[in-house]
Amino acid sequence: MPQADTPRGSARPKSFQEMILRLQSYWAGQGCVVLQPYDMEVGAGTFHPATILRALGPRPWTAAYVQPSRRPTDGRYGENPNRLQHYYQYQVIIKPSPENLQDLYLGSLEAIGIDMKMHDIRFVEDDWESPTLGAWGLGWEVWCDGMEISQFTYFQQVGGHDCRPVSGELTYGLERLAMYVLGIDHVMEMPFNDPAAPIPLSYGDVFRQTEEEYSRYNFDVADTDMLLRHFEEAEAECRRILEAPQPDPKTGRRIVMAHPAYDQCIKASHIFNLLDARGVISATERQAYIGRVRALAKLCADAFLETPAGGGEA
Amino acid sequence: MPDLLIELFSEEIPARMQGRAADDLKRLVTDGLVDAGLAYASAGAFATPRRLVLTVEELPARSPDTREERKGPRADAPERAITGFLRATGLSRDQLETRSTKKGDVLFAVVEKPGRPAAEIVAEVLETTIRNFPWPRSMRWGSGALRWVRPLHSLLCILSDDGGAEVVPLEIDGIRSGDTTRGHRFMAPETFAVTSFADYRENLARARVVLDAAERAERIRHDAANLAFARGLEVVEDRGLLAEVAGLVEWPVVLMGDIAAEFLSLPPEVLQTSMRTHQKFFSVRNAKTGRIEKFVTVANIETPDQGATILAGNRKVLAARLSDARFFWENDLRVAREEQMRPWIAALENVTFHNRLGSQGERIARLRDLAHALTPFTGADSELAATAAAVAKADLASGMVYEFPELQGIMGRYYAEAAGLPPEAAAACEEHYAPLGPADRVPRAPVSVSVALADKLDMLTGFWAIGEKPTGSKDPFALRRAALGVIRILLENDLRLPLRQAFAATPHKADADDLLAFFHDRLKVWLKERNIRHDVIDAVLAMPGNDDLTLLVRRAEALTAFLATEEGANLIQGFRRANNILRQAEERDGVEYSFGPDPKFAETDAEKELFAALDAAGPRIERAMHGEDFTAAMAEMARLRAPIDTFFEAVQINTDNAVVRRNRLNLLNRIREICLGVADLSRIGG
Q1: Cβ contacts (< 8 Å) between A122 and chain B: which residues?
Q2: Could you give the C-alpha distances from A311 to A62, A220, B46, B383, in angstroms and in order?
């Protein structure tokens, strides 16, 4: 970790990755567990079990991580200056939410070179709700000079359960934030590593081609029959996992498989997003699909609360 | 007399909740103080994004002493009664007074409560207020159980007079009251102590916080207008946005910026919607051309570079937003111009409107037929109405409406024009959604009216047919609004459309009686707002042809006017008298007096005069009714008042002569029939 990089009000980072490293080191400095991304396709960092499951139950928790996120409908073939079907979110979760969470957050902005004396930072009401996760919270979108740079939420409910204690969740849209901090107009032109590096690479060098490929796939090629089938399968598997008897015959221990079941819930959710991008889901069917994913999320939340991490009996 | 100052300092309160919260704070605290015996001279409440503030002037230092007397049971009452009284008063037997009264010795409880210091009362009232504050939505935070709109950080509560200020001691879930606050989050974050409201307000201003939302709004309005005026432009008025923005800043700094030239060709609605919804920008217009050329944004901070960095950032965000909008606009225009929107209409075939009501494509086909079928009633060209209905929903599949759903219809009009459709059809694309609310205008152009009616009637009959009608507060498909829309379109355009016929023109199998009753309920609400009495509405609803709402309302209005006249009111008396006599006689005799009376059995002058009057009025009323001229019919009826009054004064109905009696009852029936032909006057209250 480049610890030396994070004095408050330090100069602007030179690259996308430097900004990420500064965030990592800032939040590590605040005592967060710095995790790695979850190894599944998700629509947002919130879906990482380190956020959505760990927000449940009484045990204190603190984590920070980058999460690659996929939003198939936002694909623009790599042409739009700031819309991507694959992008990165930076996610921080602290339970219970500390009293100075707003100040901690503002400190992270300073760590990445945003000078509070020069910019207009605003907390604008934005109640967060994830119908697919059965979760909601109150908070704001944070604006910097009119641009939404983060989502700031106090979780109130997850999977239909009240959060006690309440987690504070921060989500940064990394590309957008970095473009602003680096003064870049088109995401594809953003330096990924140091422009003075022996092999300087831009965001476009890394991702332009994949944006194009996935845009075509998501909008026109993804096999909707297969996806519909996979949705059903993930749904069935999730339920099957949770219906398994809790005592494990092999070890003799009680093992509630909340996480494997939740993986299937994530899968169903992503498949739903793909189907949505393919335009085969109508407005009314949409609600039904969301309801089905939510039902899975609820079951997983119930199960997690029975596990040791969820405060249930070991 | 001390003044009270309260500040509840929290994380950012949603703009839309601030005004109401300030009012609630004032109401709850001052009511609580008054209930506890603390009257005050005046009070004022304020809100900023981070604070709710209340100032109460001239409170007494203590509440007055009170003495309450309660009379109890007799001294010799059974033990149980006395114990009960002791429990109710919280006194012991030896604290009761015994007084001799006319009823013997009676026990009295005298409870004297000494007044309490204001601080004690304030602390109690404030705690109750905080714990029960009516936020539209509140939350918990950390490990606590306290609820507030966002985390509550500090509590300033002081009583001050000429001698100085004192903190009202109070602690709520670990938050202890004090006499300090903080200024602007970035420009003056230090804490400082305050001694009075005047001192607080002044120090806040120095610490870059304008306490009063109205003052912030006025600064924004004034500065924005000046900036625009200096460039020969004007700010597009937007009160809702102004109020919202005033709730987003503690220290408003107004900045005006350019919209890049490449976006100026976008329709003004697109510019305005995009800037307003996403950026909370005001639009700045060239009054001569009507074009939007610049934007105004309101920052919350003064910067060393006079906002240059902030403005540059805002411009960049706007450019990103607008380039997306322009991408949609240009793509959409191409689809409209080159393919007459056909790909959208084709795409709508695959979009479900509702799983039991088919696709949007099927709905469009229904709208086309229904709009066509309605043209005899709306006076529109039937082919044009069908054409308009066929394209009215096309823009729902356009890129722009996908991005900004609130632009539906508005974009439809642009695209229909680009597709070369007749102007009436293009206008209908936009206007058929109207009216969107009670204050919205209704369409006037016959083609627009046809499509608007078709749109709403298809929804209503469709959802009725599948049993999805509104219940209680649940109306997910906005059917009440749709019904009110139909009502207003018909009435305000003076259109005659028998609704049963319209329902039957749809393919949906809706229960027409039930749906009509729903329309009548909506109409009742509408009429009541126009001060048409409940009983008048019932009287006209009971008449045949009540599915023609325009006719129904004309009748109700005529009846209302009629009842307001002396003749009208008296005639009702006469009618009621006739009706009562008849009802009693019919009940007793077991027959209905509905034969024509014969003038040859008339004995008195009054009777003969009434015959003559009814003979004369009958055909005239009938003619007026036939021409649906209710006012004329009722004017004719009013002329019957004198002969009816005279008749009742001079004639005894129940005579020994059975023939004469029967004839008189039949004569009364003629009055009844004539009156009931105009409206069911039996439903008119006294």
Answers
A1: 248-249, 300
A2: 16, 45, 44, 69
User: Which sign, positive or negative, has the C-alpha torsion B256, B261, B266, B267?
Assistant: positive
Q: Which residues of A touch B320 (CB under 8 A)?
A: 81-82
B139 vs A124: CB contact, 8 Å cut-off?
no
- B268 backbone dihedrals φ, ψ, rounded to 5°: -55, -35
d(CA B68, CA B82): 18
Write down the ipTM of this complex.
Answer: 0.92
Average predicted confidence (pLDDT) for chain A: 92
**C-alpha separations of A288 from A237, A294, A295, B355 in Å:** 19, 10, 11, 11
Determine the Cα–Cα distance for residues A270 and B439; give it in Å rounded to an integer. Answer: 43
Cis peptide before B597 (omega within 30 of 0): no
Looking at the partner chain, which of A117, A127, A285 has a beta carbon nearest the beta carbon of B352? Answer: A285
Cβ atoms of B253 and B302 closer than 8 Å: yes
Domains and CATH numbers, chain B: 3-62+117-206 (no CATH), 66-113 (no CATH), 213-339 (no CATH), 345-530 (1.10.3210), 562-683 (1.10.730.10)
**B383 contact partners, CB below 8 Å, separation of at least 6:** none
The DSSP code for B75 is T
Measured distance CA(A158)–CA(A301) in Å, rounded: 7
Q: Is A273 on the interface with B (CB under 8 A)?
A: no
User: What pLDDT, on a 0 to 100 scale, did the predictor assign at position B129?
Assistant: 97
Contacts B355 to A, Cβ<8 Å: 282, 284-285
Q: Which two tokens stand for residue B652?
A: 């005894």
Among residues A242, A294, A243, the alpha carbon closest in space to that of A266 is found at A294
Residue pair A139/A171 in contact (Cβ under 8 Å)? The answer is: no
The pLDDT tens digits of the residues spanning A115-126 come to 999 999 999 999
Alpha-carbon span B255 to B224, nearest angstrom: 8
Reported confidence tier of residue B350, pLDDT bands at 50, 70, 90? confident
**Under 8 Å CB-to-CB from B78, ≥6 apart: which residues?**
none
Residue B578's region, left for phi above 0, alpha for psi from -120 to 50, else beta, is alpha
Distance CA A161, CA B43 (A): 42
Q: List C-alpha distances in Å: B606 to B538, B638, B650.
A: 33, 17, 7
Cβ contact B310–A119 (<8 Å) = yes
- Which pair of tokens denotes residue B361? 């494509």
Q: Give pLDDT, residue A303.
A: 97
Question: Would the pLDDT of A4 be above 50?
Answer: no
Half-sphere exposure (CA, 13 Å, Cβ side) for B386?
Answer: 8
Query: In this complex, how many residue pairs, one in chain A and one in chain B, have their CB atoms less than 8 Å apart?
Result: 120
B463 chain-A contacts, CB cut-off 8 A: none
First and final C-alpha spacing in chain A: 35
Query: Chain A residue with minimal CA distance to B321?
Result: A82
